[in-house]
Design a protein that fits this description.
InterPro entries: DUF5690, MFS_trans_sf. By secondary structure, this protein is mainly alpha-helical. The protein has 18 helices and 2 strands. The two termini are about 15 Å apart.
Amino acid sequence: MKDRLRADKPWVLLFWSIAATFGTYFCMYMFRKPFTASAYEGETLGSFKFKTVIVTSQVLGYTLSKFLGIKIVSEINPQRRAWLILTLISLSEISLILFGLTPTPYNLIFMFFNGLPLGMVFGLVIGFLEGRRMTEVMTAGLCVSFIVAGGLAKKVGKHLLDFGVQSHWMPAVAGILFLPVLIGFVWMLTQIPAPTSADEDARSQRVPLNREDRRAFFRSYSFGLTSIILAFLLITVLRGIRDDFAPEIWKALGSDAKPDDFFFPDLIVGLGVLVTCGATAFLRNNRGAFYCALGLSILGLVLVCFALIGIRAELLSPFSFMVVLGLGLYIPYVAVHTTLFERLIAMTRSKGNLCYLITLSDSFGYLGTVFLMLGKDFFNTGNFVKDFFDLIGWIVAIVGIVAFASAGIYFARVGSAFKEPQQDIAAQPMTQQV
């Protein structure tokens, strides 16, 4: 199959790659997110709500996984990625089973161990796609998986609860249902051929990075990378709150959460982000695509401001608010994953890989989420949306816009030394650029 995909028409490889990576990461979400569909009413741990504790516990494990992944994901031999994905997700399912078996509150430790393997999966999956002339389209398709899967995972969890599955066993049951499907999609990953020589000429060759390689790359562009990572951290925090506490947000907006309320707003957001971020693949100039992605990221945060104003002024319905807010958060979130780091490596021609930069930014993003999860119950003294969520939203939007703009100014100043690939390579018809 790998040889056939290499020899077949480019669009066949494109859709195969999107399907394989989308499906793999979509299934991973069924081991991570269904538990958030339950409010765990009446369960507490000291002054904390039990749901806040287990969400924080999982995110803490997920965050630690990201930091471990900076080394593991950036250094791994490409031939070992698929087996590691299956191993990590299997370990997360075992943790969910132990979560169901163990009484509250002792079972919260197993939610930590559920998150611990899963944080490395995205970096491993994206490694199959980077360094290609159609990487943005492929990774946009992959990123749609976590936009759509978050809502669908909660929908699956809600349906399992409605069918009578006990809330502590519901996460494990959801994972078991999707395990066979996951295996099929991971097999599809193994059939994706390596980038062609033309891909490498246009985007630069991607190689594993050791510790010194990673340090050298970061030192070369430290201010610009720090600015992007800061904005990404803030966006990740607000995105995590929107995702993990969707039932509470819908309730605060005056709407009872139904399964479709979790799914359809995210479906609209996913399609919008796929078109917006995937289109940057058709910008052949790496520098131009990089700045276009920065502009899209700033535009997304402007949408966040509009959503916050609209819901407070009652100009937006709860459904519209979730859609506009989702677009505002996911456009920059996905732009970083699909374009900013991919084109940064391509335009600098530096020794690097997308796995490293994505995992590095994710690490700090989820670390911020841990602190916000702990602070939510301290600062949320009234309406969740109008008090805590509204405040965090404005901080994210304003600081994020400044950070992205600062990164743009920085790279504009140092960009004169960057050399674009030869025009004859960059100008090849897009039908040949997979």
